[in-house]
Structures are given as C-alpha cells and as structure tokens.
Amino acid sequence: MSPENEPRHHFMAPYDGVADDYASDSLSFFNVLGEQLVEMVGISPGDTVLDVACGAGAVTLPAARRVGPSGRVIGIDISEGMLRHAQRRAAVENLDHVSFRQTDVGELKSGEGPHFDVGLCGFAIHLFDDRSVPLRNLAARLRPGGKVGWSIWGENALQPGMALFRSVFTGTPMPDSVPDTGDLESGDHNHLETLMATVGFPGVSIKPFQHNHRLPTFDDYWTLMSTCGQRAAIENMPQEVRDRFRAELFKAFKEISDEDGGLSIDVSCLMVVGKVPG
Ligand SMILES: C[S@@+](CC[C@H](N)C(=O)[O-])C[C@H]1O[C@@H](n2cnc3c(N)ncnc32)[C@H](O)[C@@H]1O
C-alpha cells in the first residue's frame, strides 16, 4: 500500500479481529444504515453495483436484493474475516448474483473490468488520510451517468457513548504504548461538497439520516467501543490496565444507563450521493 493510501493510524488495527462483532446485534445498526444508503442512492433492478470496503455486507446485501437476479453486485474489502461474514450472509439469502473479492480500495485500478451503474461505500471513506483516493478509485469504475453513494458519521455519532469513553480514558493513567483516542471522524456539508467536486461530482446531494441504536448491556457498549476508532487504544492496553479501565468505564456507564441497564446511542450519519457527468 502506498503511504498516501494508508488508512489513519487509529484504524490501522486490521478489521479481521473484530469481524465477528460486525455480525452481532451490538453493531446491527450498520444494516439499517446500509439499507438507508441503498434507498437514498436509488438502485434499479438489473443495475451493476460495486460496494467498496463492504465489510460484513451491510450495504452489499440490500443492494443485491434491490438489483435482483438480473443485476450484479461486487463487494470488495481488505479484510478476509469481514468478507467471510458477507459471503455467508449472501449464501443464506441465496443471493447468487453477489460476489466478493479481497482488494484494497486504495489500489483499485481505473478502467479495469466492467463500468458499474452504481458505486457504494459505507463508513470507510473517512479511514483514509486523503479521502479523495478511495472516491477517485470508485468513480473511475463507474459508467458516465453512473451514481455514487457513501456514508459518513454525523456530528453526534456514537454519543453519549463516545464522550463517556473519552472522559474515563483521559481520567485513567495510561502507558505511552497506548495511543490517544480521538473523536470519531465525522462529515460536514461544506467539506463533503468540496471533496466531491474535487473528484468530479458536481451537484451533490447530502442527506442526514437520524437513527438511534439501543445497546442492552455494558458488554454491548464495550463491543461497540472496541470496534470503532477506540480499538487501537483498547488493544494496546496491558491486560491489567485494560481490566482497570473497563471497571471504571462500567461504573461510569451505570450512571448514565437507563432503568433496564441499557444505553441508546446516536448513530446518525450523512449520506452523500453524486452522479458522474455524461
Ligand atoms: C466501518 S467498516 C464498514 C463496513 C461496511 N461498509 C458497513 O457499512 O457496515 C469499514 C470497512 O472498511 C474496510 N477497509 C478499511 N480499509 C480498507 C482498504 N484500504 N481497502 C478495502 N477495505 C478497507 C474494513 O476492512 C472494514 O470492513
């Protein structure tokens, strides 16, 4: 992978280790958000679709249902573990017109293969230091007049869970080996419009989608935090530090959880939709 295409440091830990979590209820909101992205882009029966950084198939599968057997969907991801889940889920639904490939979106070749009607990407563009790289690569695989749709977290994403995590994290002494945890990368309209114009999509539509996801237990909350941008910090904590940190986080969680012991998390996002000129 060339340096300018490398994902951001705190996302560097491979997704293979958390692939099972993406198929769990703690992260099932990705399926809701994937359905919504497909809905907003507008996909027709018979369309050919490329879903990059497809993960466990949250966007790929609704796209495949939408295009039907006369269409074709290809999901690509760098993580074998994520692709295994996506493949299994497609097989359960007998979606034979979907296929998956292990490929780095930063290294997708332009001009190669079919020219797709639609290009999709759920929650991965922000993983790149230069967000235009995956977008450019995706755009290069679309036919003139083809559509692109991708999602990025909204301003309050994962709140109040993220703020809780950060406050306990900053209050707990950490060895130098533990990287700091930043806020989740989110999008703002101006930046997204400029970015899309840079990669050749004029007249972009940016639609917010509000959604909340209830995590029934602290374990579900821990799973969510361990799979997002905080993952590298958690993984780098020595066991004894991690146990202490988890105990402190549990105490703080209990203070804000509802009467049944769960917590509702904001998983609102922005859906960006554009059309290739021509
Ligand atoms: C937050 S998950 C989103 C998965 C899915 N699109 C969804 O909406 O649920 C991010 C995904 O990006 C993938 N990814 C990260 N860097 C990548 C790269 N350079 N090329 C391809 N996939 C990548 C990860 O393996 C992971 O499956």
Brief sketch in words of this structure:
The protein has helices at residues 19-22, 29-41, 60-67, 80-92, 132-139, 161-170, 189-198, 218-227, 231-236, 239-256; strands at 48-52, 72-77, 98-102, 116-122, 142-153, 205-209, 212-215, 263-266, 269-275. With 278 residues, the chain is an alpha/beta fold. Strands 3-2-1-4-5-9-6 form a 7-stranded mixed beta sheet, with helices on both faces. A two-stranded antiparallel ribbon has the order 7-8.
Widest sheet, order of strands = 3-2-1-4-5-9-6
**Low-confidence segments, ≥5 residues, pLDDT <50?**
1-13
Structural class: alpha/beta
What's the end-to-end separation, in Å?
32 Å
Q: State the helix count.
A: 10
Describe the protein's architecture and organization.
By secondary structure, the protein is an alpha/beta fold. It has a domain at about 5-155 and about 185-215 and about 270-275: Rossmann fold (3-Layer(aba) Sandwich). Helices cover about 35% and strands about 20% of the residues. It is built from ten helices and nine strands. It has helices at about 20, 30-40, 60-65, 80-90, 130-140, 160-170, 190-200, 220-225, 230-235, 240-255; strands at about 50, 70-75, 100, 115-120, 140-155, 205-210, 210-215, 265, 270-275. The strands form two sheets. The protein has a seven-stranded mixed sheet with strand order 3-2-1-4-5-9-6, sandwiched between helices. The radius of gyration is 19 Å and the shape is globular. Mean pLDDT is about 90; it is low at about 1-15. Bound molecules: S-adenosylmethionine (SAM). S-adenosylmethionine binds near residues 34, 105 and 106.
